[in-house]
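Task 17 of the worksheet. Students: predict the tertiary structure of the chain below and write it out as structure tokens. Keep your answer in the requested format; marks are given for formatting as well as content.
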Amino acid sequence: MKASPSFPIVGRRVLLVEDELRLREMLTRAVREMDFEITAAPSAEQAMRLLENHSFDIAIVDLNLPGMHGLTFLETTHQRWPSLQSIILTGFGDLDAARKAIRIDAVDFLTKPCPLGELELALGRARARLLQQMPVEPLPMPNEDDEEALAAQPGASLEQIERQHILVTLQRNNGNRTQTAAELGISLRKLYYRLGQYQRDGLLSTSTGAS
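Model answer:
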């Protein structure tokens, strides 16, 4: 399910650095379909200029690039933008490159041709690692008036309305999850799952509703 446009997309801004045109276009389409925002560059030099002017969360980088080598690019970005999560994509196995990838704390080292499922898993790991490092600034807890107003909006998605209803019910029960689950008519396990999703997306404090 795509992220709601009413909330910021956290950890989903991807920079792809790949010199092969066909692969670059294919990966751009695929990553976009995985619900990530993606910008592509054919060289490390162009990618560096993009990083200097825009914010990115994850970089997918081919090692065998024209001009600046992919590992040189990653070593530089690791120093200048330490929060940037890197996924290495290369057409050959290289033990020395793998060792350097460990030193720059790369999320994954994928060998081309890489199944898109593996890339999606790597992106998920990169985003999870980034979110763990980010300070959570939760949105204010909604109230019943907010819930009714959202439900009345023609463009409100079912996902938004469900989230608002759960958080309002949690607030009404002073954070007691057992009572909240009972009032919502769902299992406690499902409630914990939903609240975990909201926490990972930065929409809920980790201390909210701890009971």
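Marker's comment: The chain has two domains: 13-133, 144-200. The CA atoms of residues 170 and 180 lie 5 Å apart.
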